[in-house]
């Protein structure tokens, strides 16, 4: 199976939503993984506002615990996917918010997030663990953002959610590695989230990748989303020696931990 075939399969909305039993779904993923031989990429998140981090963490801990096991990692991923799914659904349902040309992009992203939610819920049920209940979200983060009345703010949060989501999926690789089928599926979702992030960043006039922890035209409140992205040391090797620090940092995307994920999610949980 060549790379183009792999990408084609991962881009198919029906892959995660086709009508199969839960056990068949896991089996399909495992079988596909054997053929795909995808590279291992790990999940986690961060806090937008340092002043709210402690309160946000307490709020989130009441909803779900930071990931430490396979099912914890899946519950964390599900909560983050719930957040993105509802965010795009609400944006698309808000009259006059998203320009016509951009609705096509966000409509497709929304379908992907819905598919991710369905898959994660089915997987948890297959593993004998009830999926975490969908929280009540406050996308203003306590009045700090107005994404559904200001399209630029909608785009800012979309970029922040996607950029953090990419790092988030990497941070949980170790926690899902015990189940090959789940690990392969998580990597497949991660690659889709990365494409979302690149597209939204470019729609805002930014590069499709992150250099030296620079989010690109983002408010200071989102600094923690990009914290650590300026790292140029990988396994003892200084990646900046060949092409400079910016290229070196952009060559490797850093992870975010489960506790960081809980903190940022808590900012948007009412």
UniProtKB/TrEMBL annotation:
It comes from the Bacteria. This is Ferritin-like domain-containing protein. SUPFAM superfamilies: Ferritin-like.
């Amino acid at each position: 199976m060549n790379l183009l075939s792999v990408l084609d399969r991962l881009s198919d909305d029906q892959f995660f939503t086709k009508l199969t039993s839960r056990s068949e779904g896991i089996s399909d993923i495992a079988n596909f993984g054997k053929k795909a031989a995808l590279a291992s990429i790990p999940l986690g998140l961060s806090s937008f506002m340092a002043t709210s981090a402690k309160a946000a963490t307490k709020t989130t801990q009441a909803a779900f615990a930071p990931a430490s096991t396979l099912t914890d990692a899946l519950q964390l991923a599900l909560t983050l996917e719930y957040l993105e799914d509802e965010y795009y659904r609400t944006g698309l349902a808000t009259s006059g918010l998203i320009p016509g040309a951009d609705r096509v992009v966000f409509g497709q992203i929304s379908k992907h997030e819905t598919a991710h939610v369905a898959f994660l819920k089915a997987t948890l049920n297959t593993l004998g663990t009830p999926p975490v209940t969908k929280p009540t979200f406050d996308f203003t983060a306590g009045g700090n953002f107005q994404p559904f009345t200001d399209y630029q703010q909608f785009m800012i949060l979309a970029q922040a959610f996607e950029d953090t989501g990419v790092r988030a999926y990497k941070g949980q690789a170790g926690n899902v590695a015990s189940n090959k089928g789940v690990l392969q599926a998580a990597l497949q979702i991660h690659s889709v989230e990365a494409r979302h992030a690149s597209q939204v960043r470019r729609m805002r006039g930014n590069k499709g990748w992150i250099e030296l922890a620079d989010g690109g035209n983002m408010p200071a409140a989102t600094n923690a989303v990009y914290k650590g992205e300026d790292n140029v040391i990988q396994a003892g090797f200084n990646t900046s020696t060949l092409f400079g620090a910016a290229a070196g940092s952009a060559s490797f995307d850093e992870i975010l931990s489960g506790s960081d994920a809980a903190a940022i999610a808590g900012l948007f949980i009412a």
